[in-house]
Amino acid sequence: MKKLVQVVSIFVLLIALTACANSATSVMTIINQVAYHPQMPVEQRHLRVGVVAGPYGSMFMEGIYPALSAQGYTVELVMFDDFIQPNQSLANGSTDLNIFQHNNFLNNFKFEHGVELSAIAEVPTVSMGVFSHVYNSLEDISTGAVVAIPADDTNLTRALRVLQAAGLIGFNPQADITRVTASDIDRNPRGLVFVPVEASQLVSELNNHDMAVITGGFAFAEGLDIAGALYNEVLSDGLLIVVTVRTEDLARDFVGDILDVIHSDRFKSVIVDQASPYSGFQRPRYFFQ
User: Fold this and answer.
1) 166-220 pLDDT per residue, tens
2) Tell me: domain 46-125+238-288, CATH 3.40.190.10, correct?
3) How far apart are CA 78 and CA 72, in angstroms?
4) Using CA atoms, how far apart are residues 125 and 55, in angstroms rounded to an integer?
5) Class of domain 129-232
6) What's the predicted TM-score (pTM) here?
7) Domain ranges (residues) in the chain
8) Facing residues of 98 across strands?
């Protein structure tokens, strides 16, 4: 009997050891799975896009977003009512990209505010124009006409250059054409009077002045007849609207995906369609390559 008890005890001990061994193996397998399969970071799929009044938020949603949506992205447009907040919001991480400014404005903003932002692509752009509720042509403009122009330095320079191109003023030959101000005007045969106005307010202020030089985005957003302007600028380098991101994000997947869409035939087809509101916009060089 004693030997039988010993045999049974040994058998029970072997079963217990086997169970422990199997349990240990299972635990080790789980630990190894955790150790060798770390969680990978999830790439961002919700994009907050800063815009101002104008056509570029709509252009993004109609021409760019559908292709991004097919890749699993969602997009939220964040509307701003001036040209300062969109870049501040992007720099502090409240938005992920913006589409509202030309490259010259961006570079000037970066210099003044010390932020690390980068343009990744130009998009079709509506020109700045000279608008009036008083005159029907440049030849009709009377002496002493009051002209509202953008108050910010970059667009003020741009507006004066538009007026020069229209033949209404001339600059001192020694002036830096990239930074001209009213003090650089040395030919003003009609004695035009210039009144700086916040760019976003130029359309609403148009009826309070004889003329206004208005950025295309605001003119478009407020329903002004772009073709009915007294003069429309021909955009030079640096004046096409750009998509802007934080410099630290340049290698992110969403930046590459947006670039692919912008250079796609589908995006181009949205712009060039004669029924499109963007068909008359000036197009970047890549449209012709």
Assistant:
1) 999 999 999 999 899 999 999 999 999 999 999 999 999 999 999 999 999 899 9
2) yes
3) 20
4) 9
5) alpha beta
6) 0.73
7) 46-125+238-288, 129-232
8) 50, 244
